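User: Second chain of the day. Same drill as before.
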Amino acid sequence: MKHFKNILYLAEPGKDQTAALARAVSLAENNQARLTLLEIIEPPRSGILEGSRTLDALFTGASQRRMAALEALAEPYQERLDIAVKVRLGTPYLEAIREVLAENRDLVIKLANPEEGLLERFLGGTDLQLLRKCPCPVLVMSPQDKDNYRRILAAVDFDPWRAEPEETTALNRQILGLASSLALSDFADLHLAHSWEPLSPEMMRLWSDTEDAGEIAAQVNIEHLRHQEGFERLARQLRDWIGDETYDYLTPRLHLLQGSARETIPALAARMKFDLVIMGTVGRAGIPGAIIGNTAEAILGQLRCALLAVKPADFVTPVTLPE
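Assistant: Same format as last time:
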C-alpha cells in the first residue's frame, strides 16, 4: 500500500538528524515517492540590516551556505534516491505549508522542536502550528526515533449512537490505512485504540431522573457494549479494506479504553512504549482550517514518541499562497 508520492522533510540545522532523515529516505523508498529536503531561514532582526547589505544580499549568502549543508546531508543517500534540496526565507510553519500547497506535498516530516526552557513540552511552536494548519499528514519525530518502529498505535474515534458522517469514516480509514501500511513495511505490531467516557453518575441522575445505583450501572454497561460493538465493527471494516491475508498477518490488537481520551491515550502509549502514534487532529467540534481539536492537542502535548497527525480530506488550511 503506497500512500505518499511527494514527501517534504524539514531540515533542522544544529540537530542530529541521522535517524529522522533515514526514516524519511526509507518512507520515500517504500512508497516510491519523491523526497525534498527544505530548510527555512527566518529573516534576521532589522538591526543587522544596517549598512550597505540588503535582506536579499544576506539571504543569498545564507542560502548558498545552507544549500551546501543540505547537499552534504543528502549525499550519503543519493545513490539510493534522487533527493532534491531547497532553501526558503520566512516564517518556518508558513513557508512549509506554502511549499506543501505549491508543490502538492502529501507528507511533511520533521524533528520535534521542544519549546526552549519548557523541557516538559515535547512539541514546539512550529510543530503545533503545522499540526493545526498543514493540510497534509505531518510526521513529528523524536530525536531518539528508531530506524524501524516495533509498535504502532492507531487512535480512532466514532460515535456509536449515531450513523457516522462520511468524513469521520474516511478519516478513520485513512488513519488505519497508514497504520497498516507502516506496520507492514516495518514488521511492527499494530494496535488500535478507542477511548470512551461515560456520563458521570451525577449527570445520569440529572438526565434519567433516577437514584438507583444498579440502573445507573446498567446504563454504563449498555454504553460500554455499544462502544465495543462499534470498535469491533471498525476492525471488520479494516479487514475489508486491507484484505483477509493482510489483516490476519497483522492481527491488530484492540484497546477499548474507558475514560477521557486526553488521559487514556497518552497513558497507553507510555505504558506499552509505542514508537509511533497515528491519530486525527481535528475533532468534531473543531473549526475546519482554523484550530486543532482540543482533545487531540491535549493528547499530542503528552506524547513522547513519534506521532503522525492526519486531517480530514475536507480540511482547509488558513494559509494561502502569496498572490
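The CA atoms of residues 262 and 299 lie 5 Å apart.

User: Great, on to the next one.
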